[in-house]
């Protein structure tokens, strides 16, 4: 599967929770298949996400197409506004 969404099931941040839920809702509404990767199950997944994103402080949600970094919530949101989600996810 191409699209990977790094997220967390364990967070006290309402912002992170709402951003993750919005990304999932939009992907589902566009019938875009994706794989959820829960970084809360181990620190190595969080480190992997940050390494792939090229940002040692990256927080979920982070989107990838395979191992190609697509962006974070803010970048995804801009793509939704511009109706360029498929290009953002490197699907087009």
UniProtKB/TrEMBL annotation:
Keywords: Acetylation, Cell membrane, Cell projection, Cytoplasm, Glycoprotein, Membrane, Nucleus. The keyword ATP-binding does not apply. PROSITE patterns: GLUTAREDOXIN_2. GO terms for cellular component: cytosol; nucleus; ruffle membrane. It comes from the Eukaryota. The keyword Metal-binding does not apply. SUPFAM superfamilies: Thioredoxin-like. It is found in: Cell projection, Ruffle membrane; Cytoplasm, Cytosol; Nucleus. Its main location: membrane. Belongs to the SH3BGR family. Could act as a modulator of glutaredoxin biological activity. May play a role in cytoskeleton organization. PANTHER family: SH3 DOMAIN-BINDING GLUTAMIC ACID-RICH-LIKE PROTEIN, SH3 DOMAIN-BINDING GLUTAMIC ACID-RICH-LIKE PROTEIN 3. This is SH3 domain-binding glutamic acid-rich-like protein 3. It comes from Seriola lalandi dorsalis. The lineage of its organism: Eukaryota, Metazoa, Chordata, Craniata, Vertebrata.
């Amino acid at each position: 599967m191409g699209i990977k969404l790094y997220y967390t099931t364990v967070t006290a941040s309402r912002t992170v929770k709402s951003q993750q839920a919005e990304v999932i809702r939009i992907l589902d509404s566009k019938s875009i298949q994706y794989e959820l990767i829960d970084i809360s199950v181990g620190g190595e997944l969080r480190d992997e996400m940050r390494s792939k994103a090229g940002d040692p402080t990256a927080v979920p949600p982070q989107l990838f197409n395979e191992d190609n970094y697509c962006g974070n919530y803010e970048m995804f949101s801009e793509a939704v506004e511009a109706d360029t989600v498929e290009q953002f996810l490197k699907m087009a």
